[in-house]
Structure formats: structure tokens, C-alpha cells
Write a structure and sequence with these properties.
Radius of gyration: 22 Å
Structural class: mainly alpha
Strand content: under 5%
Oligomer: single chain
């Protein structure tokens, strides 16, 4: 069964699914959207930091990490 057939099958049977499964599926999709937005935001911030030269060298990161331990 290809993707289009699977989507059509789900659409035809959606009214038969109980609320708990619908809620579970909804939460899963919502969490994916939230995660995607967070990752995009982090990537954009990283790009901005790189452009403005707000970066650390490897040795600086190692020093900060060693001090934290």
C-alpha cells in the first residue's frame, strides 16, 4: 500500500477511531510541530551568533566543560 492509499484508508476510517487514539495521535503531531519550531529557532540563533562572531574555540569549550565537572 503506498502513501496515498494509506492516507485514504485512514481518512475513510477516521470516524471509527475512539477518542483516546485521536488524542494520542494529535498530541504526537503537536509535539513534532513544537520540536520543529524549537529546532528552527535554535538554528536561526546559531546562524546569528556565527555571523556576529559569538563563537568559542574547541579549547575554550573544553576548559568551560572541565570547570563545570
Amino acid at each position: 500500500m503506498n502513501l496515498i492509499e494509506k492516507r485514504e484508508f485512514i481518512r475513510r476510517h477516521l470516524h471509527q477511531i475512539d477518542d483516546s487514539l485521536i488524542n494520542e495521535f494529535y498530541e504526537m503531531l503537536r509535539k513534532e510541530d513544537v520540536l520543529k519550531a524549537k529546532l528552527i529557532s535554535r538554528a536561526q540563533k546559531s546562524e546569528k551568533d556565527i555571523k556576529s562572531m559569538k563563537v568559542f574555540s574547541r579549547s575554550e569549550i573544553e576548559q568551560k566543560t572541565n570547570r563545570a565537572i
